[in-house]
Amino acid sequence: MLPKDLLITYKRKGNIKPKYLKNINLAEILINIFQKFIGIKYKELQEKLEELEQGDKNYKIIRGISFLLKRRCEFEINSILNCTEVRMFLFERGFVINEDERDKVFEEASKYFNASKEEIEEAFFSDLQEEQILKKLNPISSLELIKKYNLSLTQTLLFDALELTFVVEGNYQKIFRQINYLGLIYEIEENEIKVTGPGSLFKNTKKYGTSLAKLLPHITNTDKWKIKAKIETKWGNEPRIYNFELNSYEDILLPHYTEPITHFDSEVEAQFYHDFKIFNLGWEIKREPTIIKAGKYVTIPDFGFYKYGLVCYLEVVGFWTPEYLKKKIWKLKNAEHKIIVAVNQNLNCRKEDFTGEVIFYKKKIPLKPIIKILKEMEQKHIQKEITNIQKIEIKKEMVLIKEKAKELNIIPEALIRLNIPNYFIIGDKIVSQRYLDKLKEEIGNEKEYKEIEIILEKYKLTLKALDYIGYKIIWKGIIPVKIIKKN
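User: That's the sequence. What structure does it adopt?
Assistant: Structure tokens below.
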């Protein structure tokens, strides 16, 4: 975040937006200046920056980027003496009115601290910021610096926010933990979350702006996000409310550190995740995949399963306090989407306490009942698609299954189960009887295996096609030697 006097915005038709940077040149210049002043007093660096600002209409930008760079600096006191003790000793000697008296006091201090007069002089103000030495600038690229600057501009704008509304995909646990930590309140409507403070229930107030600003990095640290805010600022001397909007699709440089959520709340969850991945059912599994509205609250299921546009959620209920368990059960009962619940059998609850599918576990979550639920969902979906298919017309002698499925707007598995007159499913293709007849005619009664490989490659088919046209392979040990007609 930046001091408010460094915020640069533009206003138009009731909207407000910070003036974001896209060019990294200025950041490169400032990083180089800071690096050149390593080992030199801060006041000399400050003089150089002020010189750079002189006559530059972008002085606020220079000052803002410099402000962020200073946070990355490490300074050291250029004195071996305790500056505070030296200062206290000198001040206790009272006022001096001429140079002779000053020299006398400094000589006394030299003897007391066993140091030279020059070292006493240096220690007098060495701990003040402007006298400190720039020891180190923690590395940052010019691009990352501009991203941090743009984020800081946005946070500073939110100091004056009355409310913040956002939509995100991911990072839900961290976002809602931060909302609670910052003492904010939220309400959810469809997929939008509006965040304010308790006092906002009674009147418009900007007192929560700093907290909203602190929440911002957690929101933008996702793949897809959108924010809207009401900003109260002044137009002339009159307060006025402006609209602010920003989303992840805009061409604005902002920090982005998002990673797939792979941390787990327990060994039970971690084991289940890895076991499910190994099974490779074709269902994608995501950790903490979304938020689900539950009354005036939200619940974040531990896992989400995705396939063919189907969605299924799983919540793991482990060892918790009675109060937490009571709240968890209430949320699950009031959730707007069905959630499978895996419950530790040692908890004081029954199947009747929950709605929907409940699985009890002891040491690990059993895969079999969850796989059964997912397969039943899958089969129902496939059967529904088969039932909805009115007619299939294929004009080509051979077509890829995935291409035809896309054309019909159905899943490939549904197409594979259909009985298509005069066509066969061979591997990943739908092949006409006429096309197979041509293949059979070219093979004849029998062929050497090497010849068959060439013919099948020509027809873009695999050995599976031979079963459909009545041939079998003759083997010599483990080596295929020829193809002959079946009896």
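The two ends are 83 Å apart (CA to CA).
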